[in-house]
Amino acid sequence: MSARLVFAEVRVVDPAAGTDEVRDVVIADGVVAGPEAAEGAERIDARGLVLAPGLVDLHAHLREPGEEHKETVETGTRAAAAGGYTAIAAMANTHPVTDHAAIVHEVRDLARACGLCEVFPVGAITKGLEGESLAEMGEMVEAGVRMFSDDGHCVPSARLLRNALLYAKAFPAEIVLAEHAEDPTLVQGGQMHEGPHASTLGLAGRPAEAEEIVVARDLALAAATGGRLHLCHISAARSVGLIRRAKAEGVRVSAEVTPHHLTFTDADLVTYDTNRKMHPPLRSEEDREALRDGLADGTIDAVATDHAPHAVEEKEAEFDRAPPGTIGLETALAVVLTEVVATGGVPLPRALDAMSTAPARILGASDHGGPIEVGRPANLVVFDPEEDWTVEPPFASKARNSAFLGRRLTGRVRYTVLEGSLTVAEGKPTR
Amino acid sequence: MNEHVLSMHDLTAEDVTRILDIAGSFREVGTRVIKKVPALRGRTVVNFFLEDSTRTRISFELAAKRLSADVINFSAGGSSVAKGESLKDTALTLQAMGADAIVIRHSSSGSPLQLTRWVDAHVLNAGDGTHEHPTQALLDLYTIREKLGRLDGLRVAIVGDVLHSRVARSLSFGLVQMGADVTLVGPPTLIPPDAQAWGVQVSYDLDAVLPKLDVCYVLRVQRERQRLEYFPSIREYARLFGVTRERVGLLPEGALIMHPGPMNRGVEIDSDVADLPRSVIEEQVTNGIAIRMALLYLLLGAGEKVPA
Amino acid sequence: MSARVMEPDDVRRALTRIAHEIIERDRGVERVVLVGIADRGDDLARRLAAEIERIEGVPVPVGVLDITFYRDDIGLRSEAPEVHETRIPFDVSGRTVVLVDDVLYTGRTIRSAMDALIDLGRPHTIRLAVLVDRGHRELPIKADFVGKNVPTSRTDDVRVLVRELDGEDGVLVEPAAWLPDAEAGIGGAGMDESA
Question: How far, in Å, CA of A361 to CA of B88, rounded?
Answer without folding.
Answer: 45
